[in-house]
Amino acid sequence: QVQLVESGGGLVQAGGSLRLSCAASGSIFSINAMGWYRQAPGKQRELVASITSLGSTNYADSVKGRFTIARDNAKNTMYLQMNSLKPEDTAVYYCNADLRLRISAPPIDYWGQGTQVTVSS
After folding, report:
1. How many Cα neighbours within 13 Å face the side chain of 48?
2. Residue 101 above 90 pLDDT?
3. CA-CA to 42 of 20 to 30 Å: which in 15, 72, 75, 90?
């Protein structure tokens, strides 16, 4: 069974920092792109940042200059460093991974359970 296990969410004051992690486990042949999504109450889920297996990154305009995405391919782990947090960043953050279980299998998207990030003013 493939699992995405997230950690690092919590409550922080505006201007503070948090570091989220997402570890993929199970029988995995390869992981292609990975990304962080978030969903605030009453809003649509949106892409926060993504990273390819070779390290190319993309960020939502709202987090550029404040958030940094990274991955450790040897550990199948992805990170999101969040600095200068704002109340508008409050949301449930979800880990996503595009991966193959074996070389002959098509790539499939997997999701983590979500972790709450709350930024107080």
Report:
1. 29
2. yes
3. 15
**Residue 120, amino acid:** S
Beta carbons of 25 and 2 less than 8 angstroms apart: yes
* Residues 38/94, Cβ–Cβ less than 8 Å: yes
The span from the CA of 23 to the CA of 115, in Å, is: 13
Q: How far apart are the first and last CA of the chain?
A: 40
Q: What is the token pair recorded at 12? A: 């922080």
Three-state DSSP class for residue 85:
coil
Interatomic CA distance for residues 120 and 80, integer angstroms: 19
The per-residue pLDDT for range 27-68, each reduced to its tens digit, is 999 999 999 999 999 999 999 999 999 999 999 999 999 999
pLDDT at 1: 86
Q: pLDDT tens-digit profile of 59-70?
A: 999 999 999 999
